[in-house]
Amino acid sequence: MRRELLVALSAFFLMTLTAITGVYAMEKDEKTNKLIMEQKTDITNDGQEEMIQLKGDASDQPENSNFFKELFLDVSIQKDKTATLAVEGGFDPKLHIMDINDDHHKELMLTVSANERGSEKNFYFFQLQESKLLELQKPELASVESQFKDAYKAELKINKEKTYIFDLYDRRQHYEKLGLYHKGRLNEPTELILSPFSEIKITRLNNQTALKGKQKISGLATVDTIAYLETWWTWNKQEWVLQKVKVKEISYKRS
What we know:
The protein is mainly beta.
């Protein structure tokens, strides 16, 4: 009898401990997963609104920090059904909800800074399809060729169609000192640096919804900024198509 009582008490203790642990885990999850954004809208064009939430894991971070270890997208489809997707964390996440490819369905565009300064960013595009959040293709240049040329010049070719020539004469002393040139002659073949998108915005182009991207063109290092490349893209039901290209050169500042 005493043994049976001991077994019963042990089982009760374990059940109580498990319940307490579960409640603590739930409370901890609620505390660390911070609600960043919430919006109710019809994203599937079916006449019914969905609740979209962006949450972030802010555990082990100061209360006012804008860094999240992991991000979560929740779309409430029905009262008892939610589509959830986890995304790599970062700084200052922003979620935009609108039809970006003119298919009469709203997409989710998530922007996350990879560093605190916001100079490097990651971009994600999602669409709700058959009760699941699926990541969509991002715009990407098919090919970019670049190289320094003699006489302190550089050449940039985009998709083997558009060619830009940069006159870097004002930087000659800097490049000669670093050994890139010797009296205007290029010492060895060297490419320019085209950074990933630092900015993607939703805009309009020729009465179509479009994406406008911005990338930095640098010389020997990312701090050696030569120009910015701006590109406009529209969706043709299968992929993003490059519609317009603009290069903005910047003046050289001597240190």
